Structure formats: structure tokens, C-alpha cells
Amino acid sequence: MNDKTSIKTPQKLSTVYNGKCVRILDCQNPQNMVNGLLSYTTTLYGDVANVTCDTGFTASVNVITCTSSGTWSDVALCSPVGKKILYG
Length: 88
Known about the structure:
The protein is mostly beta strands. The protein has a single domain (5-80), classed as Complement Module, domain 1 (Ribbon). It has strands at 5-9, 12-17, 20-25, 36-39, 48-53, 57-59, 63-65, 78-80. The strands form 3 sheets. The protein has a 3-stranded antiparallel beta sheet, with no helix packed on it. Strands 4-5-7 form a 3-stranded antiparallel beta sheet, with no helix packed on it. It has a two-stranded antiparallel ribbon with strand order 6-8. The radius of gyration is 17 Å and the shape is elongated. It starts with a strand and ends in an 8-residue tail after the last strand.
């Protein structure tokens, strides 16, 4: 018998499966980008978001990943070609 229930809390989704509580990490939607777009379907642990920058801009990273800490692996930035934007 597979007994499944879900409880949604910020950044955490717990599922009871076969009487055991299993924690599924949810990174939530990544930060909006300026001069670019993040493409993803889901935001759970291990999922990736692909980075695409507008014409004339270059990406700081090509992909960000939802990590085991429930956060995205990086902040994706699009900077003008030939210039770097410092973050932080």
C-alpha cells in the first residue's frame, strides 16, 4: 500500500511514502534576470535552469542548479559583451 500525502512549506515539500517522511527540496522560482531569460520546468532538488541572454549580452553562467540546500547554485547575470558586471 502506497500512502502519499504532501505538505507544502516555503522551500520544502515533505512527502509521506510507505509510512516514511521524505523531504523534497524546492528552490522556488529563481531570481528574475535583466537582459536575459531563465528557462526551467520545475524547481526541485537537482533541476536546472538554462540561461539565455539578449543579443549583445553574455551570461555569467550557462546553467544554474537547484542544490541540496534548497537554493540555486549561482545568480545568473547577463552583462554587455566586453564588460563584466560584478555582483555582491
